Amino acid sequence: MDIRELKLADLQPSQFYVSEKKLREAESWFSPADLSAFDPIPVKILDGVPVMTDGHTRAAAALRAGLEAVPLVPDPDELDWEMYRRCVAECRRRGVRSPADLLSRIVPEEEYREKWDRWCDKMQAEVTAERGGHAVKTDWYKNAAVYQIYPFSFMDANNDGWGDIEGIISKLDYVRDLGVTAIWFSPLYRSPDKDYGYDISDYRAIDEKFGTMADFERLLDECHRRGLKVIMDMVVNHTSTEHPWFQAALSSPDSPYRDYYIIRPGRKKGGKLLPPTNWASTFTGSAWERIGDSDEFYLHLFCVEQADLNWDNPKVRREIADILTFWLEKGVDGFRFDVFNMSSKVHPLRDDTAKKTFQKGAQYFVDGPHMHEYLRELNREALSRFDCYTVGESFHPSPENAREYVRAENRELDTIFNFGHLDSDNIGGMKFFRKKFDLLQFKKGLFGPQTASFGEGWNTLVLENHDNPRCVNRFGIDTKHYRYEAATMLATVTYLGFGIPFIYMGQELGMTNCDFRSMDELKDPVSHFVYGLMTSYHMPKKLAFRFIRYGARDHARVPMQWDGSVNAGFNRGHEPWQCVNPIYPEINAEKDLRAERSVYRYYQKLLEIKKTRDAAIYGEMKEFAPGDRKVAAYSREYAGDRLFIAGNFTKRPVRFTLPEWVGGARVLLDNCGGAETGGGSVRLKPYQAVVWEARG
Ligand SMILES: [Ca+2]
Q1: Are 564 and 591 in contact (CB under 8 A)?
Q2: Do 155 and 570 contact (CB within 8 A), yes or no?
Q3: What is the pLDDT of residue 429?
Q4: What's the CA-to-centroid distance between 176 and ligand 1, angstroms?
Q5: What is the pLDDT of residues 266-299, one digit of tens each?
Q6: Average model confidence (pLDDT) for the chain?
Q7: C-alpha 235 to ligand 1 mean position (Å)
Q8: Could you give the residue numbers annotated as active site?
Q9: Ion ligand 1 contact residues with beta carbon within 5 A
Q10: Pick from 623, 628, 689: which is nearest to 439 by CA?
Q11: What kind of architecture, by CATH, is found in domain 244-308?
Q12: CA–CA separation, 18 vs 550, rounded Å?
């Protein structure tokens, strides 16, 4: 393939960022032995021809394969898909399954990665300087797979009952071997833990129970050495009330920090002092808390100990940009923004006049008037100065706003989470109130955002996180008899869609909900608040407990189940901060990895397809049989590469009609085995998921 075929001539010089000099430097790390491994394809670089890159690995691999050009993605909206496709095709033509495979044949991955990273960092710094401080944004996140770690409960190395950084490091090989490419850490910052890490009192410090900053830096390094990117949680809608800003705000009515928060005088009615508005917080009673015995209140949309920041104050936004820069300079690769779309409030703040039990005032802070503007500013001031990825946890955004947040050309966020499908087994999004599982709602919630953002932005795919019960205990699943089948089916149907898979720790083992015996075993303040509320409305305690146990966030927060030893191997016997799920001798990592039917090993196969298959990454998603109440099915297609995915959501066999082309297609993945295709249809066993492939 001639390099000029890649339409280089059509590109503007500003789109190149690798000089020939740099290329020569890069060439110097290939030993003659490395090069001979490529025989008869020598690595050659033509004078004056720039190499462009859309990802470290891919660029290096192509370079080594003798390809002179790899596409660059200076900005996501300028991506040349056609060029990318041809590049990958060329790798394939040379008998290499994927660029990553090519790489692993030559030098030990870690040694290579280190050299490459150093080179890229240097290059990135030069280009960033040339571009007035704005970095080149690569698209590494597009074929990423993210593993979420809730540090409290992952691994307790020093046996004090709390998970810690040392513990995480000891399990990084386990995480890497699953096949993920990035880790999102729930907050590791200093926190009084009123909301378990989501109430931050120092954004630049690691909490003592997890370790030290030096430990964190080692964690970052150990992740990077294994090719794992690091995504930090960022909770900046509110701070802990123990944060020095809030303490300073309280210290004096004249403190400039008062304007860091949303502080308003109360209203006097009939000799009584009422909060400034009637809003109810999501976690506890009124969203306003009186400041001492003054007439003023501060706003907290969540816990009393989580004071909302005033984003309309430019100094607050500057502080946030500086915090992001602090972590980016340390080398983290991205952020997950907690409830990001509540930060811009509508002023003046008014009563919620909607006729419902809880007046939350959502219309005065969800997708607020300056939300888009503030996100763009954070990009300009911090995010765009590094090659970093962002995902926003949104709080019920409107579909229009959801699209705008991720539209690449807007430069706001790369992705947001979409949770619509997770409400398909509860009433009105209230997770404690169970309803009969509705597959149509699940499909609409899962597939809708995939078509809405396609071609404009990127997407994420979620089944679990630290705020949700375990997926195998939901969606009407018969967990007792079909745990393995359901765990693997849900993953297949969810993760082969358009977007980045997010996997919550333990999900890859099919971990189940905990059989909590009493409220004492639950730690989450939300569980206790809602329980208190229910009983205050005279709901019998037993019944209230049943509701709580159905939807509690606590299920996901019990210690990770590593093996059958004491405390599931989470530590060496100290009582954990949160009780261990008594089922652990039966469900744990060691046992799953040895099992004939291993959820973990199935995830490995699934993620391999997800990360390397063009159709699974870039393909357009088309839903099939959207009205089917038992089966979810869709196709992904990219440049002649086709996949078809179907999953049975019931515990009974189902016959399902297939599109014509699938009839002759090869089965690529099958969680139960023995898919019976014939006569234009397939007979799916209970919770069976099948993936068919066809090329050309
Ligand atoms: Ca510990």
Answers
A1: yes
A2: yes
A3: 84
A4: 22
A5: 999 999 999 999 999 987 789 999 999 999 999 9
A6: 85
A7: 23
A8: 338, 393
A9: 156, 158, 160, 162, 164
A10: 628
A11: Alpha-Beta Complex (3.90)
A12: 55
